[in-house]
Amino acid sequence: MFLTRDQERMLEGENGDAVRKSMELLVALGEVFGAEKLVPIESAHISGVSYKNLGDAGTEWLEEQAELGSRCRVRATLNPAGMDMEKWEEMNVPPEFAEGQVRVIEAFKRMGVEPTCTCTPYLIGHVPRMGAQVAWAESNAVCFSNSVIGARTNRESGPTTLASAVTGLTPLYGYRLDENREPGKIVEVGTEMKTRLDYSALGYVTGKTLGNAVPYFRGLGSPDLESMKTLGAACATSGGVALWHGEGVTPEAGWAAGHLDGVEKVTVECSDLEEARERLVCDPSNPTYCVGCPHCSLREMAETAELAKGRDLGGRLWVFTSRGVYQEAARAGHVETIEKAGGRVYSDTCMVVAPLHEMGWEGVATNSFKGGYYSVAHGFETMITTLDKLVEGASR
Amino acid sequence: MILRGRRVMGGVAEGEALVSVEPVSFYGGVDPETGCVTEPGHCCCGENISGKVFVFPTGKGSTVGSYVIYRMKKLGTAPAAIVNVETEAIIATGCVISDIPLVDKLDGDPLKAIKTGMRIKVNGDNGIVETL
Q1: How far from chain centre, in Å, is Cα B101?
Q2: A residues 147-206 near B, CB within 8 Å?
Q3: Which residues pair with B9 in a beta bridge?
Q4: What is the pLDDT of residue A280?
């Protein structure tokens, strides 16, 4: 791989051990993936934040990086933690867990990472330019950034996003190159998309069918931002999709349409979506009803509040969002409305990365195929339904 | 026997070979406390990889696996070196952040040429894997 003189000096340790270690990682991965050089990035979104996933190993590694002098050279935001950093006790999170989680966040703060603790940085003002090279982790954020915004990132991990934030560089390969952004399969949507849950189911089916190929959707209709958020999240989870094009919907679709010669077509019918829903559905005896996977937008907060009005939710409805959106929703009165009805609203964390077993959960109901997928993987009886049915189900 | 391949992480290490014909997930598939492979049904389930030259096709599973490799290094349960047929990001990241020599893309199939129990030297600096 070609390195500039400056980059060679960084690798030799002239800018300190933190930069040297970060360069070692980026160069090694560049070699593995056949990158010809490193390119500058404009921002990073760092995953590997929940103490549930990091454990003591990851926590120690992060503290060591902070100790070594790692500091972000570009804007870097942070993925969700395993708990609401303020209301963790109310969530029933064990104190030992909270202690570990605080250590993680403190280490990131020392390195200059914004403790946004959200999987939807794009909803709180972290929005790259179209075409910008960025180093983002978190599969839904990657999918949104590549597809809806048109920025360029691979599916990065915690260590690689941190290394890129510290050096401002990333190896040039994968989805950073035009040739890998061309459609891999045409996905003809043979049924009308009516609800956001339809988009979530479509994402799930697409990921299952395509693996990590790039889908080019036809017949998506006019998805709103929330529908595109849940579509990407689902296909990134079930298949590892990092980029999708939607005809008449996403910014690169016009370009992608010029690369459809010989591309195979699959059709997704209403029955495929029904089947996906049925496969992930059972009837949990005492579920916690979850909204906010990925984190709720302000509009979803408003919709949830509207549905919750006058209900008796008895602590059974849990709403997850970023602290940024929480504050906007609090100002708009949505948080109070939901809480008055007996719902709970938490920031910084979500149903995927919180220690749900330790918190005493028995079952899960969600309006997200991504949430449902992880809930099943974590051993919970899981139900998937639309937002209005969720609120209705939680109501007594 | 000498195999020549690609340096991914430098450093030189020796150890007894443990060969897995199946990909390995360090997150959930290996116990960092004991160094044992724990994935049910895995061809190396129950084997201890501590201090070994661990030979397997490639990594799989969650990216958290990189941190598990690091944890093992800290605990002294990590393999001495890793040889892959063709590595991927999780294993490469884990080896780089833990200073474990990693070589792949050898000029002969390491899963056939190397047998469990052989004494092996891995030179991550020049990509050479040889029997002792």
Answers
A1: 9
A2: 157-160
A3: B102
A4: 74
Q: Name the residue range of residue B49's domain.
A: 2-131
Residues of B with Cβ-Cβ distance to A32 under 8 angstroms = 8, 87-89, 92, 104
A60 contacts on B by Cβ (under 8 Å): 70-71, 74
What is the pLDDT at residue A212?
Answer: 86
Cβ neighbours, 10 Å, residue B21: 12
pLDDT for A70-114, tens place per residue? 999 999 999 999 999 999 999 999 999 999 999 999 999 999 999
B70 touches A: beta carbon within 8 Å: yes
pLDDT reported for residue A250? 98
Q: Which of B64, B88, B96 sits opposite A53 (nearest CB)?
A: B64
Q: Which residue has the higher pLDDT, A396 or A119?
A: A119
DSSP at A128: P
* pLDDT of residue B61 exceeding 80: no
Indicate which residues of B carry an active-site annotation: 62
Query: What's the Cα-to-Cα distance from A257 to each of A42, A189, A246, A250, A261, rounded to whole Å?
Result: 28, 16, 10, 11, 9
Q: Residues A5-178: name the CATH superfamily.
A: Aconitase, domain 3 (3.30.499.10)
Total number of domains in chain B: 1
Q: Among A182-191, B23-32, B109-118, which stretch is predicted with the lowest mean pLDDT?
A: B23-32
Q: Which amino acid is at B106?
A: L
Q: What is the mean pLDDT of residues A17-35?
A: 95
Chain B residue with Cα closest to A57:
B71
Domain ranges, ordered by start, for chain A = 5-178, 182-278, 280-394
Domain holding B105: CATH number?
Answer: 3.50.30.10
pLDDT score of A86 = 98
Question: At A337, which amino acid appears?
Answer: T
Tell me how far the alpha carbon of residue A94 is from its chain's centroid.
Answer: 25
- In the predicted structure, residue A377 carries a pLDDT above the cut 90: no
Residue of A45, A53, A59, A61 best to disrupt the B interface, most CBs of B under 10 A: A61
User: In angstroms, rounded to a whole number, what is the distance separating the alpha carbons of residues B46 and A160?
Assistant: 31
Task: Inspect the interface and report whether the beta carbons of A157 and B74 lie closer than 8 Å.
Answer: no
Q: What is the pLDDT of residue B69?
A: 94
Name the amino acid, one letter, at A143.
C
The answer to whether the CB of A222 falls within 8 A of the CB of A193 is no
